[in-house]
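Researcher: I'd like a structural prediction for the single chain below. Treat it as a standalone chain; there are no partners to consider.
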Amino acid sequence: MQHPFFLVHWCSRIHIYYCVKKRIRIFAIVSILFFLLMLIFFPARYMSAVRDGLLLFVLSVLPAMLPFFFFSRLLTSLDVASSLADYTKKPLAKLFGAPDIGGYILIMSMLSGYPIGAKLVSDCCENGICSKEEAKRLLAFTSTSGPLFILGTVGMNMLGNYTAGMIILLTHYLGAILNGMIFRGKTAAVSAKNFVLPKYDNLLADAINGSIAAVLAVGGYIAIFNMIIVVCQDIKLIGFLSETFCKLGIPYKLCEGGVTGIIEITRGAYLISTSGDSLTRTVPLLAALISFGGLSVTVQSLSFLSGCGIKARYYLLTKASHCIVTYFLATLTAMVIL
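Model: Treating it as a single chain, here is the predicted structure.
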């Protein structure tokens, strides 16, 4: 018979859990009402912010992301993963304790970037190709940014330095691999099961319909988070947090870029790149922020992962770990090369 104190202990833990959950719910409701009121009282400013986000999506994100969503969905439906699994299953099982499908997801994520990895993990879990636990292990190393954004947008356009972009790219991917080893499962990986192929007359229609729905969801998140950043700037929240981190001896511009990047990575990366600080300081910070992905990417990824039952706190834990590992890798590399 267990001691009564044991029951008291667990009852107190349950009470604390529900109190925290209730407070989070209240905080979420208050925050939502606040953003609604800001939109009502200052419609021109914040509708403009949403419009800017939609323009960014239509002009830059949609042309790049829609083809990747479409063709990756076709490849997934045609069971291309089974062919790749033959070449990747041994190293994946040894390094990560992950199922064979991980090689395909990792390659597609590296090619196309956020949030393709999370979407493919979700597709595999929902189609019975991997279990929930296997999906969690996959997520630790297959949620990455793409070379087009890192080398083109950040390396060349923002920093004007291809070498710096390569350092960010390589440490970001190496960080993902090390992160997968950190979250490695104790159980042996199970071989991937084959997809049940759809009828070929519906293949293109299913791929385009699913891709459009997914990419429109991404556009919605970009537009909303663009408005959230403008609101946070107007109420001086970003300025307050930046000044707080400045007390640690970090330049204000880097702090401002870092805080903004936690919300939305593209704008944060731009602020860091224009801070005027040395590459040995900006490159590791950019690599870390890109590995985290920002809250905008987090919400996009979680919208796909909701069907797998993977909790937000687990996803955030894997991204925080990836962020820290990449920061130290990029710091060491930048000190040697730059």
